[in-house]
Amino acid sequence: MKQNYAHTVGVVLAGVGLAGTFLSWPATAELTLPATRGFGAVAVLAFTVRRHGHGPSWVDTVATIAAAFLTLGAAAAVIELQTAGSLGPIISLLAGFGALGAGGASITGLNQPAVKTRERRTLLALSVSALALVVGSFLTSVAVSLVPSTPVVRVSVSTAVASIAYAGVGVVFIRSVNSSINVSTLTQRDLVMAAAGILAIFTLHAIMAATVSVFSLPQTSHSLIETAKTTPEILLPLIVLSFVVVAPGEELLARNALQKYLYGAYSRRSAVITASFVFAASHILAYGGTGATPGAILVTLARVFGVALVLGATYEQTDDLFAPVVVHGTYNAVQFAIAYLTFT
Asked: What's the pTM value of the predicted model, to 2 decimals?
């Protein structure tokens, strides 16, 4: 049973994903729903066969591929949602992601202790990320009550305080797991990776923007950008703060604290992917508070996930905060600058 624990998890999650296909789905997904349901059934069957010790090892790959198509079908349905009332696609999407993880674990032959370690560390990473948001929100509410009510001052203070709070939570977590803060002497490799990361992140940004445009996908914008549409002057200090506090604070937490912590349960590349999911999830409130549809939020979070992959890979290649902070700060600053020029 310990050796087949990943398959057991896969059966449960694929089953939940399959069950979600029998709940309410958008009418526009009627053509893809039967196929999505079929892939869910294949995933459940394949995981079940392997759970009981039957079938060749390639059945694990079949289960994982079926889970991937279940996830894609659910994602396509979520994009069509105009409200969060249809829970079926959302349930199937979340369960599909979990089944994909179980599939990866089954393919690599992880036993129960190894899978449970992944589960614990991933849940803790999500919890720490959520805690950072709570702490940041609380300290921000206190800070803005002590400063003038002008938008520029309030947005600048709230952004700075929240970022410092993220860094603080990151430092506490790093110390609690007996890890270290990765800031060392600047090297030529750090500079090269920073330059490569900047090139990669803007190339990816262009590709994702073109994809959204070509397929007319819905998307939403950050709450700061929504505010800046009426008061664009708030963006100018944010350009500077991107380098000074935003990027350092978020990278210290997301990469140095959480991604590095996940190295203890995953391969380094898998840790980058998992940490990127955690990073994207932490932005749900920032992009979901503007009345956006579930589809728009999903598409936007997918773009955040892509950006996080670049930042995570940059950190993984250097084991130092310099390059990801520079890449992150540059990316944010350019977005704020473009938005300012657009709105003025």
From this structure: 0.93
